[in-house]
Write a structure and sequence with these properties.
260 residues, alpha/beta, Rossmann fold, 2 domains, seven-stranded parallel sheet, 8 helices, 7 strands
Length: 260
Amino acid sequence: MKLKNKVAIITGSTSGIGLGMAKGLAAEGATIVLNGFGDSQEIENNRKSIEEMGVECIYNGADMTKPDEIRAMVTEAKEKFGHVDIVVNNAGIQTVSPVEDFPEEKWEAIIAINLSSAFYTSRAVVPMMKEQGWGRIINLASAHGLVASPFKSAYVAAKHGMVGFTKSIALELAEENITVNAICPGYVHTPLVDGQIADTAKARGISEDAVVKDVLLKLQATKKFVTVEQLAEMAVFLCSDAAENITGTSLAVDGGWTAQ
């Protein structure tokens, strides 16, 4: 098991991509700290299902808009397990709206959760990673960290910021045996994307089927949604010894979208 004795915090991991990441890292032996919101019984069921894979798994409900709670989550993980080796900054929300109608509170929330939380989480774990001489920080950006789409000004701004943040701290940490990379998925069929489908249909005045065919998958050359399992495998690879010289990169897993 490649990640035995490693401890991983995955933000926004109670569903979708984050939960897939947690399960993928657990399958390779990593101890898991789940984070996010949702139905408490469903979260507990997911936590137990990960422990059934033969690893420890705890849940911390830190609000990713609150730096104090983010720091407390990292502290709890360190106190319980002695170290944190891997961080996957995955927490994210989305709102689709023309810029002139974009709700100000949604802009602030998207920047806080999709971008600033990665800063606060990384800031909290880096001293520990430096001390132990090993670390992996994986930032979930998006194809929208590389290219833009209309009606997603906050999300695109945050994801472009995530790519820049990744490059900057990768250079800072390059000699510390700590790698920092961004994964840039195309469209993944998750609850977040289901919400986007409805919002985009409303914003563009078209059907939800048309959104999937003519908007979401239009630029994905494969005409297939990316799967959470594929992203989890990418994360496992980035945590492996084979990837120790991969840092500061933005790895597109987007069905050929950004090749066009």
